[in-house]
Amino acid sequence: MLERTMAPLVKISGVKSVTLFEADGFVIYRSSEDTTNIDNQMGKWISSLEASVDSEQITFVLEEGTVILRRGNRLNMIINCEATINLGEVRKTIESCHNLLHNMN
């Protein structure tokens, strides 16, 4: 079910990985392994979300690409993208996948 819900995001050219995790860092879905979703990095992403309680979404522009964190009611997302990706398309698709994910019963 999660794979189907995240498929529109995973299929965007330039998306390296999508990770869904609970507030405590427990990963429940990974489209693929990369440095953004290894255990020691997850703690840093959780800290970033905790430090920005007023933001639903945080974007990090890094040398090797862009990482977007999206806070959810039940699950949070990490989207790791190549540097040349169309961020508008990714953000629109994140919103759609987020809504599907959090409206599932």
Explain this structure:
There is one protein chain. The chain has 105 residues and is of the alpha+beta class. The protein contains three helices and five strands, in the order H-E-E-H-E-E-E-H. The protein has helices at 2-10, 39-51, 87-102, and strands at 15-21, 27-30, 57-62, 65-70, 76-81. The protein has a five-stranded antiparallel beta sheet with strand order 2-1-5-4-3, sandwiched between helices. Strand 1 and strand 2 form a beta hairpin.
Structural key phrases:
single chain; 105 residues; alpha+beta; five-stranded antiparallel beta sheet; 3 helices; 36% helix
Number of helices: 3
| Overall SS class | alpha+beta
Taken in chain order, the helices and strands follow as HEEHEEEH
Report how far the terminal alpha carbons are from each other: 11 Å
What topology, given as strand order, has the largest sheet?
Answer: 2-1-5-4-3
* Rg: 12 Å
Helicity range = 25-40%
The main sheet comes to:
5 strands, antiparallel
The amount of beta strand, in percent, is 25-35%
The rough form would be described as globular
Query: Total number of β-strand segments?
Result: 5
Low-confidence stretches: none
Chain-averaged pLDDT? 91
